[in-house]
Design a protein that fits this description.
Helix content is 47%, strand content 16%. α2 (44-53) links the parallel β2 (27-30) and β3 (57-60). The chain is globular and about 35 Å long. The protein is of the alpha/beta class and 144 residues long.
């Protein structure tokens, strides 16, 4: 099973959707705590509609987003701090439920995790991808 991740930091909506389609993604799992964006085309409603037009399903799993202190740490380049904050958050029951939902989605269809940061190594979506792969045999992460 391949699980994709993608960040839209320096991309247009068209470019992101093209990369998703080229990778065979069937469902996009939005793992932002706040599914709004100053970047054109990446707020929840518009993104979901554009993905639907492209034949890609959209699911927003808000509890898999980074809490504000973690986002602040990531913006300041403090990746280890962001990871610690997110790991604590991910232990919460609501986050565990949504992690289980993301895992089920990824088991059934080619999925991609979406967040803002271009570099997956500094983004919490890498942690979500790791956890999904821990729960699924023969899982490979593909960073688009």
């Amino acid at each position: 099973m391949k699980l994709a991740t993608i960040g839209y930091e320096s991309e247009t909506q068209d470019a992101v959707i093209r990369r998703l389609k080229d990778a065979g993604v069937e469902v996009l799992i939005d793992v932002r705590a706040v599914a709004a964006s100053r970047r054109a085309g990446f707020s929840k409603t518009l993104l979901a509609a554009s993905l639907k037009d492209a034949g890609i399903d959209y699911v927003h799993l808000r509890q898999l987003g980074t809490p504000k202190p973690g986002r602040d740490a990531a913006r300041k380049g403090r990746v280890a701090e962001m990871r610690a904050i997110f790991e604590d958050h991910l232990a919460e029951p609501a986050a565990q439920l949504e992690l289980a939902k993301a895992t089920e989605i990824a088991r059934g269809r080619k999925a991609a995790l979406l967040c803002y940061e271009a570099d997956h190594r500094g983004c919490h979506r890498a942690i979500v991808a790791e956890r999904i792969c821990e729960a699924v045999d023969a899982c490979e992460v593909e960073n688009l």
